[in-house]
Structures are given as structure tokens and as C-alpha cells.
Specification:
Layout (H helix, E strand, L loop, with lengths): L1 E3 L6 E3 L15 H7 L7 E6 L2 E6 L4 H14 L4 H20 L1
Antiparallel strand pairs: 1-2, 3-4
Length: 99
């Protein structure tokens, strides 16, 4: 079933899902294709009152790596500089905990 809201211009689709043994659910293939999710992908289940929303969870690692690389490039910091700074920070934290 598909409903289109005139106010928000958002299409709402309804998919019947049966709760399996052990709580497993199967996402219909049409929906998997539409959301570009595959077996083993991370999803997040939100409970909002009596409403359940299941959404793809996008890994943040790629975005974080890109942000770190951009900052390093903008600040002219090499990987060697970053790692040596990390070593110094670890030492400072260790010294602080010893006091």
C-alpha cells in the first residue's frame, strides 16, 4: 500500500512483515533494493511511542576518515606528525593519572 501526503509530499509505503522465531524479520527484496541495503548491513530500529521505524544505519567511519584527512591537509600535518602527537598525548594522560 502506498500513501502520498499532500502536505509533506512524502510517500508512505506499507510492507507486511512477520516476526519470526527469535524475533527475526525479513525485509522485502523490493525495499532492500530501494534502500540499497544487503545482508549484513547495519540497520537501526527506533521506537517512537507505539511507532517503530527501521532505517539503514550509515557507517560513520568513511566520513570521519575524510574529515580527518581534510583537517590534516588544511593544517599541513603528516601522518607521522599525527602519530607522534598521539604518543605525546598518551604520555601526558598517563602522567596525569599517576599524579
Amino acid at each position: 500500500m502506498t500513501i502520498t501526503s499532500q502536505e509533506t509530499d512524502v510517500e508512505i509505503k506499507q510492507f507486511p512483515i512477520i516476526l519470526g522465531q527469535g524475533g527475526e524479520i525479513t525485509i522485502p527484496q523490493l525495499l532492500q533494493d530501494s534502500l540499497n541495503v544487503n545482508q549484513g548491513d547495519m540497520l537501526v530500529l527506533l521506537q517512537i511511542g507505539n511507532l517503530i521505524v527501521l532505517a539503514p544505519k550509515q557507517p560513520q567511519a568513511r566520513q570521519l576518515i575524510d574529515r580527518i584527512a581534510t583537517i590534516m591537509e588544511n593544517e599541513n600535518v603528516s601522518l607521522t606528525d599525527l602519530l607522534s602527537g598521539l604518543e605525546a598525548e598518551r604520555e601526558a594522560i598517563w602522567q596525569e593519572k599517576q599524579s
